[in-house]
From TrEMBL:
InterPro entries: Haem_Oase-like, Haem_Oase-like_multi-hlx
Name under which the protein is recorded: Heme oxygenase
GO terms (BP aspect): heme oxidation
Source organism, top-level taxon: Bacteria
GO molecular function: heme oxygenase (decyclizing) activity
Pfam family, one: Heme_oxygenase
Length: 189
């Protein structure tokens, strides 16, 4: 099944990404530091969603509108008086030229909702920020996060039944993680 293969083949990048982000969370001392982390996500996911929008829509993924993250990130940043930085573009982003590549990129974005629940708890503990004050992105789908993930996995398996299609989705997911890692490192300079 694609969902098992993609999890195994992106594991290395997931671990790297998680490590960088946990480091940032641990050194977070103020709301401004947290807003800086949100800016990083806004810039990358914001640019990535513009590419995904060219291939995925409510016709081929009925709840796609709920799954977009740019508006939630912008709202959180506005609540916390952060900036809306420029979005990633060109070589800062992976190649997304068709539906399969778009689903590979969306896999990375959707998967981030699973870690988001943990991050949300860390932010609440460290900074005392409560719901409604800038946690909507990391809270994701709240209680519905597990269901939304299972539904997404089913869709992923359905759109890429052949080996060649699966290889294309997996390559795009790895490329999306890799560029995000580079983006986070660049943002930290
Ligand atoms: C502090 C940071 C993070 C933590 C603690 C974390 C933690 C987790 C956890 C607990 C899971 C569920 C694993 C399972 O149930 O099998 C998960 C899955 C996942 N996470 Fe993260 N995560 C973090 C950051 C991220 C970020 C920033 C991204 C994307 C940019 C991401 C992408 C994914 C993906 C794609 C999956 C799904 C793996 C699968 O196919 O089952 N994670 N993460």
């Amino acid at each position: 099944m694609l969902t098992e293969k993609i999890k195994a083949t992106t594991l290395q990048y997931h671990q790297e990404t998680e490590k960088i982000l946990v480091g940032k969370m641990k050194s977070m001392r103020s709301v401004a530091d947290y807003a800086h982390i949100l800016e990083l996500f806004y810039g990358y996911f914001g640019g990535l969603e513009l590419l995904i929008d060219k291939h995925i829509n409510t016709q081929n993924l009925p709840d796609y509108t709920d799954r977009r993250k740019t508006a939630a990130l912008a709202n959180d940043l506005t609540n916390l008086k952060g900036n809306l930085p420029p979005k990633a573009e060109d070589t800062e982003l992976p190649q997304i030229n068709n539906l399969l590549q778009a689903f590979g990129a969306l896999y990375v974005i959707e998967g981030s909702t699973l870690g988001g629940k943990i991050i949300s708890k860390m932010v609440q503990q460290h900074l005392g920020i409560t719901d409604g004050q800038g946690l909507s992105f990391f809270n994701g789908y709240g209680e519905d996060t597990g269901n939304k993930w299972v539904q997404f996995q089913q869709k992923l398996n359905a759109i890429a039944p052949t080996e060649a299609q699966q290889t294309e989705v997996i390559a795009a997911a790895n490329n999306t993680f890799e560029k995000f890692r580079d983006w986070m490192v660049k943002f930290s300079d």
